[in-house]
Amino acid sequence: MRVIVHGGAGGIPEEPDTRQKVLDDAANAGAATSDPLDAVESALKVLESNDRFNAGYGGAIQSDGVVRTDAGIMRSDREAGAATSMAGIEHAISVARVVLEETPHVLIAGDHAVDLASDFGIETGVELRTEKTTARFTEENPPQGSPREHLQWLETRFGTGADQAGGSTATPHDKHAPDHDTVGAVAYDGTMFVAATSTGGRSFALAGRVGDVPQIGSGFYASPAGGASSTGAGEDIAKTTLTRRAVRHLERGMDAQTAADLAIEEFGELTGSSAGVIVLDDSGAGSAFNSDGMQTSVAQK
Ligand SMILES: NC(=O)C[C@H](N)C(=O)O
Question: How many structural domains comprise the chain?
Fold first, then answer.
């Protein structure tokens, strides 16, 4: 089993070595399995439980004070599942897998996704806010009232992707904000590729906002040529279908590194925004980003 994981594209983390160790543990956990669905799920569960990443516990808080998680998973035979806008779900990746394996659908949202999770034995009602994320949110004098009032509040707080191009800041407000610390994994067992991504979204987003992560071809994609997982400003990733773009480059004969480089180059040209992508094909792994940093880890067993 070969696995590549990423811990989000953004600024340089405060303790890169500690964080790298968690990513290495995640990649190793994935590589120790014998099924690529298990590989990406076990890798991402390690990262969803660690508050150094914006997924599961420690995920970004939306304008109404709630963390809502999203994830997507896809196999190279084009079976896919995603789950979005879930409150109290730490392991969004496991819910996405339930959607893939147990339903005839590709995307389930909100309270219904939480009910589905509960029915399939996935823990619900988990406290996903940490002291750090709560303090950061509270400092910003959270809005009351209607969505229009929330929109006014986030006008000066929700960073545009262009604010972050070059990765200088995670948001205009907080240099060390864990804004781009979405997690992703791609696994290959010699037969099947599986790509997956999990996130708490972006900080200071409107309640109910959904980004690229649960959208096929945006946050995740797999085909017989390989798989890809992305991270960055989700609105821009969705508008340019970043992972579909990277996998299309594999289908045209590029290797994983060239496909990743070209996809990010095109993304930057089209959007002026920042993102990263990891790519796996049958001969190796590649990754590229146009932010200040994106940590990755590759493991093979
Ligand atoms: N942290 C991220 O990578 C954010 C994620 N792509 C989203 O927009 O929801």
Answer: 1
Amino acid at the residue 276 = G
Q: What is the ipTM of this complex?
A: 0.97
> CATH code at 259?
3.60.20.30
User: Ligand 1, residues 231, 289, 291: which to mutate, most atoms within 8 A of Cβ?
Assistant: 231
User: Which residues share a beta bridge with 99?
Assistant: none
CA of 234 to the centre of ligand 1 (A): 5
Does the beta carbon of 19 lie inside 6 Å of ligand 1? no
Q: What distances in angstroms separate CA 244 from CA 42, 80, 104, 154, 193, one per listed residue? A: 24, 14, 22, 30, 14
Contact 245, 221 (CB under 8 A): no
Give the Å distance between the CA of 300 and the centre of ligand 1.
27
Please state whether beta strands 183-188 and 193-199 pair in parallel, antiparallel, or not at all (unpaired).
antiparallel
Q: CA 169 to CA 27: how far, in whole Å?
A: 27
Q: Does the beta carbon of 180 lie inside 6 Å of ligand 1?
A: yes
The pTM for the full model equals 0.94
Tokens 């999770």 — which residue?
117
On whether residue 156 sits in a domain, the answer given is no
Q: What is the pLDDT of residues 111-167, one digit of tens each?
A: 999 999 999 999 999 999 999 999 999 999 999 999 999 999 998 888 766 554 433
Residue 295 located in a structural domain:
yes
> To which H or E segment does residue 229 belong?
strand 226-232
Six-digit token string for 174: 């907080």
Report the alpha-carbon distance of residue 194 to residue 296 in Å, rounded: 17
- Spatial CB neighbours of 141, under 8 Å, sequence gap ≥ 6: 153
> Cα dist. 42→23, 135, 297 in Å?
12, 30, 14
